[in-house]
């Protein structure tokens, strides 16, 4: 068992694959905060999906765009329930099939269909560019829609002369219990989490919407101490448009996403030589001479402030600002005492009489 992420806290915003992603991070030693931002609601009985299926049977599509694996499987399962699965597969078999990503490709092949092309970026924009270059004038294009409709893609195809049939299989909905999401927003705004993972663009948008009047604080945290880690370029779009730097793996896979976090978070740590010890700061812990020392939030906040001004004396008033509201100077003394006990190295933090505290930097 590896512990590259020991001492770090990582937020997980996905719902459907939260257990898988959380387990991957925990195996690396991370503390994980699971807070689904959205949930997928299937629309197997939805009128729009049935009408789209009938439209495909009445006017077989020349092109099929498969947006997601779960969406294509859901569409065929719904058609099975209506007794239309075989006729639907029959008309789709003759279409030029575009799979937006590997999961969509897997679902297409599992259904006995043959995909013809996939975008390298897995983006809707690249799909539209490819189809428009290929020519869609006078053709019928069926688009399996996952989550939210993308009217700009439909409009672009129609502007190129295509007739578009949208097949909405799922929709996004808020989480059943919003409490974990709001707790994660508090942790991000307070910079008490080291990274947050996103596996879809709607999830990134939804987290910022849920932040409400704290959105600016959340964005500031993502631009500074909190790493926004996105599974791919499409997912990163909403954050990049707001000036947030993101980390993305070369391949849009959960394993690759975790490896990116493993590489990135340790690079962002502060390491100092203090009182004969090598001290490295992590999210909720310090590493002293290679030994992990987990710390409570108050002593961790004091240590972070002292490491931010190594060697300088910080007054109790200054350190008080790092603690939760309502704390007093006595709370600072308690936090320092707990910090020394937690580090098991009392000489690391020096008391400067009548002035405050400092790190005893070498």
Number of separate structural domains: 3
- Fraction in beta strands: 15-25%
- The order of strands across the largest sheet is 2-1-10-11-12
Number of strands: 18
Mean pLDDT: 91
> Unreliable stretches, pLDDT < 50, 5 or more residues?
none
- State the separation between the terminal residues, measured CA to CA: 34 Å
Briefly, what CATH class of the largest domain?
Answer: Alpha Beta
CATH fold type of the largest domain:
Rossmann fold
Contiguous helical run count: 15
CATH architecture of the largest domain, please?
3-Layer(aba) Sandwich
CA radius of gyration is: 26 Å
Report the helical percentage.
40-55%
What's the short story on this structure?
The protein has 362 residues and is α/β, with parallel strands linked by helices. It has helices at residues 18-27, 47-58, 69-81, 85-93, 102-110, 124-134, 151-159, 179-189, 201-211, 215-223, 233-240, 254-267, 297-308, 316-320, 329-343; strands at residues 9-12, 31-34, 39-42, 63-66, 96-99, 115-117, 140-145, 163-168, 170-173, 195-198, 227-230, 246-247, 270-274, 277-281, 285-288, 291-294, 349-352, 356-359. The chain is elongated, with a radius of gyration of 26 Å.
């Amino acid at each position: 068992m590896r512990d590259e992420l020991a001492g770090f806290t990582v937020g997980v915003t996905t719902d459907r694959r939260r257990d898988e992603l959380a387990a991957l991070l925990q195996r690396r030693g991370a503390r994980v905060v699971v807070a689904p931002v959205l949930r997928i609601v299937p629309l197997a009985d939805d009128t729009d999906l049935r009408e789209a299926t009938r439209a495909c049977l009445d006017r077989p599509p020349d092109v099929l765009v498969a947006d997601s694996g779960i969406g294509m499987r859901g569409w065929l399962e719904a058609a099975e329930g209506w007794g239309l699965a075989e006729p639907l597969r029959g008309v789709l078999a003759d279409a030029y099939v575009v799979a937006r990503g590997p999961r969509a490709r897997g679902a297409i092949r599992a259904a006995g269909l043959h995909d013809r092309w996939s975008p390298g970026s897995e983006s809707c924009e690249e799909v539209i560019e490819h189809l428009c270059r290929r020519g869609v004038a006078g053709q019928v294009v069926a688009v399996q829609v996952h989550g939210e409709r993308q009217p700009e893609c439909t409009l672009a195809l129609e502007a190129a002369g295509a007739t578009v049939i949208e097949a909405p299989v799922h929709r996004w909905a808020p989480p059943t219990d919003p409490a974990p999401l709001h707790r994660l927003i508090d942790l991000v705004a307070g910079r008490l989490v080291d990274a947050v993972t996103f596996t879809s663009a709607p999830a990134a948008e939804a987290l910022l919407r849920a932040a409400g009047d704290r959105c600016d604080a959340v964005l500031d945290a993502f631009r500074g101490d909190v790493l926004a880690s996105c599974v791919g370029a499409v997912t990163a779009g909403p954050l990049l448009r707001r000036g947030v730097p993101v980390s993305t793996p070369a391949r849009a896979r959960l394993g690759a996403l975790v490896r990116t976090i493993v590489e990135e978070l340790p690079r962002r740590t502060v390491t100092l030589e203090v009182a004969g010890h090598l001290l490295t700061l992590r999210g909720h812990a310090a590493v002293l001479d290679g030994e992990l020392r987990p710390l409570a939030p108050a002593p961790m906040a004091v240590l972070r402030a002292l490491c931010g001004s190594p060697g300088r004396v910080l007054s109790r008033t200054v350190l008080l600002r790092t603690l939760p509201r309502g704390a007093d100077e006595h709370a600072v003394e308690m936090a320092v005492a707990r910090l020394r006990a937690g580090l098991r190295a009392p000489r690391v933090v020096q008391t400067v009489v009548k002035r405050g505290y400092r790190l005893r930097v070498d």
